[in-house]
Amino acid sequence: MGVYERQQKEKKILEAAIHLFSEKGFHATKVDEVAKKARISKGLVYFYYKSKEDLYMAITKKGVDELKEIFNKAFGKPKEKTGLEVMTDLAESYLSFARDKKVFHDAILHFLGLLDQYQVDKEKLNPLILNSQYFTKLVQSHHDLAKLGIKAISTGIKDGSIRPDLHAESTFYTLWSMMIGYCRISGSVSLEPGEIKINTESWKNGFIKLFFEILKGSSTPSVSQPVQGKLF
Protein backbone atom coordinates (compact mmCIF):
# COMPACT_ATOMS: atom_id res chain seq x y z
CA MET A 1 0.00 0.00 0.00
CA GLY A 2 1.40 3.37 -1.03
CA VAL A 3 1.82 6.38 1.23
CA TYR A 4 -1.01 8.31 -0.41
CA GLU A 5 -3.45 5.41 -0.12
CA ARG A 6 -2.53 4.93 3.52
CA GLN A 7 -3.09 8.62 4.23
CA GLN A 8 -6.49 8.49 2.56
CA LYS A 9 -7.53 5.48 4.65
CA GLU A 10 -6.41 7.22 7.86
CA LYS A 11 -8.30 10.35 6.82
CA LYS A 12 -11.52 8.39 6.18
CA ILE A 13 -11.28 6.70 9.58
CA LEU A 14 -10.63 10.00 11.37
CA GLU A 15 -13.49 11.75 9.59
CA ALA A 16 -15.87 8.92 10.49
CA ALA A 17 -14.74 8.91 14.11
CA ILE A 18 -15.02 12.70 14.42
CA HIS A 19 -18.58 12.56 13.07
CA LEU A 20 -19.63 9.76 15.42
CA PHE A 21 -17.88 11.14 18.50
CA SER A 22 -19.58 14.50 17.84
CA GLU A 23 -22.96 12.82 17.49
CA LYS A 24 -22.82 10.10 20.16
CA GLY A 25 -19.77 10.79 22.32
CA PHE A 26 -16.62 8.73 22.78
CA HIS A 27 -18.00 6.09 25.16
CA ALA A 28 -21.18 5.37 23.19
CA THR A 29 -19.35 4.99 19.87
CA LYS A 30 -18.12 1.54 18.89
CA VAL A 31 -15.23 0.76 16.56
CA ASP A 32 -17.67 -1.29 14.47
CA GLU A 33 -19.64 1.89 13.84
CA VAL A 34 -16.52 3.81 12.85
CA ALA A 35 -15.60 1.08 10.37
CA LYS A 36 -19.11 1.06 8.91
CA LYS A 37 -19.14 4.85 8.60
CA ALA A 38 -15.72 4.81 6.90
CA ARG A 39 -16.79 1.89 4.70
CA ILE A 40 -13.82 -0.23 5.63
CA SER A 41 -13.34 -3.35 7.73
CA LYS A 42 -13.00 -3.25 11.51
CA GLY A 43 -9.66 -5.01 11.14
CA LEU A 44 -8.36 -2.23 8.93
CA VAL A 45 -9.34 0.35 11.56
CA TYR A 46 -7.19 -1.55 14.06
CA PHE A 47 -4.41 -1.74 11.50
CA TYR A 48 -4.12 2.05 11.55
CA TYR A 49 -5.19 2.70 15.15
CA LYS A 50 -4.38 0.22 17.90
CA SER A 51 -7.52 0.97 19.94
CA LYS A 52 -10.46 3.35 20.22
CA GLU A 53 -8.37 5.29 22.74
CA ASP A 54 -5.53 5.54 20.22
CA LEU A 55 -8.04 6.86 17.67
CA TYR A 56 -9.28 9.46 20.16
CA MET A 57 -5.72 10.59 20.82
CA ALA A 58 -5.25 10.94 17.05
CA ILE A 59 -8.34 13.18 16.95
CA THR A 60 -6.94 15.17 19.89
CA LYS A 61 -3.64 15.62 18.05
CA LYS A 62 -5.52 16.83 14.97
CA GLY A 63 -7.45 19.30 17.14
CA VAL A 64 -4.28 20.66 18.75
CA ASP A 65 -2.66 21.02 15.32
CA GLU A 66 -5.67 22.96 14.00
CA LEU A 67 -5.73 25.25 17.03
CA LYS A 68 -1.98 25.80 16.70
CA GLU A 69 -2.47 26.82 13.07
CA ILE A 70 -5.21 29.26 14.13
CA PHE A 71 -2.91 30.76 16.79
CA ASN A 72 -0.10 31.16 14.27
CA LYS A 73 -2.42 32.94 11.83
CA ALA A 74 -3.37 35.42 14.56
CA PHE A 75 0.15 36.84 14.47
CA GLY A 76 -0.13 37.86 10.81
CA LYS A 77 2.96 39.30 9.18
CA PRO A 78 5.94 40.37 11.34
CA LYS A 79 5.34 43.77 13.03
CA GLU A 80 1.87 43.96 11.47
CA LYS A 81 0.02 43.79 14.80
CA THR A 82 0.58 44.88 18.37
CA GLY A 83 0.70 42.21 21.04
CA LEU A 84 -2.74 43.27 22.28
CA GLU A 85 -4.18 42.93 18.77
CA VAL A 86 -2.71 39.44 18.51
CA MET A 87 -4.22 38.51 21.88
CA THR A 88 -7.57 39.89 20.72
CA ASP A 89 -7.46 37.64 17.66
CA LEU A 90 -6.23 34.67 19.73
CA ALA A 91 -9.11 35.03 22.18
CA GLU A 92 -11.75 35.42 19.46
CA SER A 93 -10.30 32.50 17.50
CA TYR A 94 -10.17 30.27 20.57
CA LEU A 95 -13.80 30.92 21.53
CA SER A 96 -14.90 30.33 17.92
CA PHE A 97 -12.89 27.10 17.81
CA ALA A 98 -14.46 25.90 21.07
CA ARG A 99 -17.94 26.60 19.65
CA ASP A 100 -17.49 25.38 16.07
CA LYS A 101 -15.09 22.47 16.68
CA LYS A 102 -16.56 21.20 19.94
CA VAL A 103 -15.37 17.61 19.46
CA PHE A 104 -11.77 18.88 19.15
CA HIS A 105 -12.09 21.28 22.07
CA ASP A 106 -13.56 18.59 24.31
CA ALA A 107 -10.76 16.23 23.29
CA ILE A 108 -8.11 18.83 24.14
CA LEU A 109 -9.63 19.48 27.57
CA HIS A 110 -9.80 15.73 28.17
CA PHE A 111 -6.12 15.48 27.30
CA LEU A 112 -5.25 18.30 29.72
CA GLY A 113 -7.01 16.29 32.42
CA LEU A 114 -4.97 13.23 31.47
CA LEU A 115 -1.79 15.28 31.87
CA ASP A 116 -2.64 15.88 35.54
CA GLN A 117 -2.83 12.13 36.14
CA TYR A 118 0.26 11.55 33.99
CA GLN A 119 2.33 13.80 36.25
CA VAL A 120 0.93 12.43 39.52
CA ASP A 121 1.04 8.71 38.70
CA LYS A 122 1.14 7.81 35.03
CA GLU A 123 0.97 4.08 35.84
CA LYS A 124 -2.71 4.58 36.74
CA LEU A 125 -3.50 5.89 33.27
CA ASN A 126 -5.29 3.59 30.86
CA PRO A 127 -2.46 1.61 29.16
CA LEU A 128 -4.27 1.96 25.84
CA ILE A 129 -3.73 5.72 26.15
CA LEU A 130 -0.17 5.45 27.44
CA ASN A 131 0.75 3.20 24.51
CA SER A 132 -0.73 5.56 21.92
CA GLN A 133 1.88 7.19 19.70
CA TYR A 134 -0.41 10.23 19.48
CA PHE A 135 -0.53 10.61 23.25
CA THR A 136 3.27 10.55 23.30
CA LYS A 137 3.41 13.23 20.59
CA LEU A 138 0.90 15.36 22.49
CA VAL A 139 2.91 15.14 25.71
CA GLN A 140 5.97 16.31 23.79
CA SER A 141 4.27 19.20 22.00
CA HIS A 142 1.34 20.39 24.14
CA HIS A 143 3.32 23.45 25.33
CA ASP A 144 3.38 24.84 21.77
CA LEU A 145 -0.01 26.52 22.20
CA ALA A 146 1.06 28.22 25.43
CA LYS A 147 4.32 29.35 23.85
CA LEU A 148 2.38 31.23 21.17
CA GLY A 149 0.16 32.92 23.74
CA ILE A 150 3.14 33.85 25.90
CA LYS A 151 4.87 35.25 22.82
CA ALA A 152 1.85 37.47 22.07
CA ILE A 153 1.76 38.85 25.62
CA SER A 154 5.53 39.38 25.69
CA THR A 155 5.27 41.27 22.39
CA GLY A 156 2.53 43.47 23.83
CA ILE A 157 4.56 44.27 26.93
CA LYS A 158 7.48 45.31 24.72
CA ASP A 159 5.42 47.43 22.31
CA GLY A 160 3.42 49.08 25.11
CA SER A 161 -0.02 47.77 24.13
CA ILE A 162 -0.12 45.51 27.22
CA ARG A 163 0.64 46.75 30.73
CA PRO A 164 4.31 46.31 31.68
CA ASP A 165 3.80 44.90 35.18
CA LEU A 166 2.45 41.57 33.92
CA HIS A 167 4.34 38.28 33.93
CA ALA A 168 3.77 36.85 30.45
CA GLU A 169 3.70 33.16 31.39
CA SER A 170 1.35 33.37 34.38
CA THR A 171 -0.86 35.90 32.56
CA PHE A 172 -1.38 33.62 29.57
CA TYR A 173 -2.24 30.60 31.69
CA THR A 174 -4.65 32.70 33.73
CA LEU A 175 -6.38 33.98 30.59
CA TRP A 176 -6.45 30.51 29.05
CA SER A 177 -8.09 29.10 32.18
CA MET A 178 -10.63 31.94 31.99
CA MET A 179 -11.46 31.08 28.37
CA ILE A 180 -11.85 27.39 29.20
CA GLY A 181 -14.13 28.27 32.11
CA TYR A 182 -16.17 30.63 29.93
CA CYS A 183 -16.68 27.90 27.33
CA ARG A 184 -17.65 25.38 30.00
CA ILE A 185 -20.32 27.41 31.77
CA SER A 186 -21.61 29.81 29.10
CA GLY A 187 -24.34 27.36 28.13
CA SER A 188 -25.69 27.24 31.69
CA VAL A 189 -25.95 31.01 32.10
CA SER A 190 -29.29 31.20 30.26
CA LEU A 191 -30.67 28.55 32.65
CA GLU A 192 -29.88 30.48 35.84
CA PRO A 193 -32.88 31.33 38.06
CA GLY A 194 -34.50 34.73 37.67
CA GLU A 195 -33.00 36.21 40.84
CA ILE A 196 -29.53 35.96 39.31
CA LYS A 197 -29.28 39.05 37.11
CA ILE A 198 -27.36 37.69 34.14
CA ASN A 199 -27.97 36.57 30.59
CA THR A 200 -25.80 35.25 27.80
CA GLU A 201 -25.10 38.67 26.29
CA SER A 202 -24.25 40.44 29.56
CA TRP A 203 -22.04 37.52 30.62
CA LYS A 204 -20.16 37.67 27.31
CA ASN A 205 -19.68 41.45 27.53
CA GLY A 206 -18.56 41.24 31.14
CA PHE A 207 -16.13 38.45 30.35
CA ILE A 208 -14.54 40.35 27.45
CA LYS A 209 -14.29 43.53 29.54
CA LEU A 210 -12.54 41.72 32.40
CA PHE A 211 -10.30 39.81 29.97
CA PHE A 212 -8.91 43.00 28.46
CA GLU A 213 -8.76 44.88 31.75
CA ILE A 214 -6.26 42.24 32.84
CA LEU A 215 -4.13 42.98 29.79
CA LYS A 216 -4.54 46.77 29.58
CA GLY A 217 -5.45 47.72 33.13
CA SER A 218 -8.58 49.59 34.19
CA SER A 219 -8.84 53.30 33.48
CA THR A 220 -10.83 53.66 36.70
CA PRO A 221 -8.80 52.84 39.80
CA SER A 222 -10.59 50.58 42.23
CA VAL A 223 -11.18 51.84 45.77
CA SER A 224 -11.35 49.33 48.58
CA GLN A 225 -14.37 49.82 50.82
CA PRO A 226 -13.73 49.91 54.58
CA VAL A 227 -14.85 46.83 56.50
CA GLN A 228 -17.65 47.67 58.95
CA GLY A 229 -18.03 45.93 62.30
CA LYS A 230 -16.56 42.61 63.38
CA LEU A 231 -16.17 39.40 61.43
CA PHE A 232 -17.51 37.28 64.27
From TrEMBL:
Return the annotated DNA-binding positions: 30-49
Q: Which residues form the HTH tetR-type domain?
A: 7-67
- Which keywords label this protein? DNA-binding
Which domain of life does the UniProt lineage start with?
Answer: Bacteria
Transmembrane stretches, by residue range? none
One family name in Pfam for this protein: TetR_N
Protein name, UniProt field: TetR/AcrR family transcriptional regulator
From which organism does this entry originate?
A: Cyclobacterium jeungdonense
